[in-house]
Design brief:
Elements (H helix, E strand, L loop, with lengths): L4 E4 L4 H6 L1 H11 L3 E4 L7 H11 L2 E6 L2 H6 L1 H11 L3 E4 L13 H17 L3 E5 L7 E2 L2 E2 H8 L5 E4 L2 H6 L4 H7 L6 E4 L1 E3 L26 E3 L8 H11 L3 E4 L10 H14 L3
Parallel strand pairs: 1-2, 1-12, 2-3, 3-4, 4-5, 5-8, 9-12
Antiparallel strand pairs: 6-7, 10-11
Helix pairs in contact: 3-5, 5-6, 9-10
Amino acid sequence: MKLPVAVQLYSVRDEMAEDFEGTIRKMKEYGYDGVEFAGLFDKTPEEVKAICDEVGIVPVSAHVPYYDMLENPQKVLSDYALIGCKYVAVPYLTEECRPGTPGWQSTVEGIGKIALAAKELGIQLLYHNHDFEFVKLGDEYAIDILYGTIPADLLQTELDTCWVNVAGENPAEYIVKYSGRSPVVHLKDFEMGQKKGGSLYKLIGIDDEQEEEESSFCFRPVGYGEQDFAAILAACEEAGSQWVVVEQDEPSGGNTRLESVKLSREYLSTLGW
C-alpha cells in the first residue's frame, strides 16, 4: 500500500475563501485522500468536521501561526482536535524568531510549550521548515538543534522537500535521517532557473522589504520541476511516514491554483500513488 496523499489547502487559498466546501469537494474529486488546513475561513470547527465527514476526506493536519498557538495553545489546538486533525504544524517563523537572532532560544522554548499542550489534546506537533533553519549554529544546522532539543514524542518533522533542496541538502536523505520522526512530508516541486538572486519569500506572499534582483525561481506542480520524487517517495516509505502532502505556494506556467494541484495528483497517480 502506498501512503495516502493529502493537499495543503494554502495551495488553493483563494478558492477556499470563495467556496470552502466546494473546494474541499474538488480535492476529493481530484483523488486526494486528505487535507491540511491553512486557516478555517470563519468556519467553526464543528462545521469543518461536518464538511470533511460528508465529503469523505481526512482532516489530516493544519498549519497554525506560531504566535497564535503560543498565546493560547489550549484554545487554538482544541479547535483542531475537535475537527479531528491528528497533526498541527508550526508553519513559519517571522524574522525575529529565526535561528541566529536573539529570539531563537525563546522560540525553541515556545515550541516546546506548544508541543506539551498539543500532546495533552492528543495532537502531535510538527515543525514545517523553510530554508532559513539550515543555518549552522556552531557545527550543527539549527533545524537539527531544534529536533535535538525537543524530544521526538513532543515534536516531529514535517519536512518540506522544496526548501530542504533549496538549502542545499538532499530531501530524500533528510527524510531518511529522521526515520520514525517524519509522519508527514511535504511534496513540493520547483524550478530554480538561471537567475538565482532575489527573495524567494516574495513568492509565498511575504515581503521581506529587501531590494534584490528578480529570481527565475518558480514553484511547479509535483513532477514538473527539478525534484527527484521517485527517491523522495521511496524515502518516505523507508522512514515510516504516514502521509505525503502536496503543496504549491504559487501557480506558474499559466496554470491556475486548481489546475496545479490537479496536475500534481495526476502525476503521483502515474507513479502508483
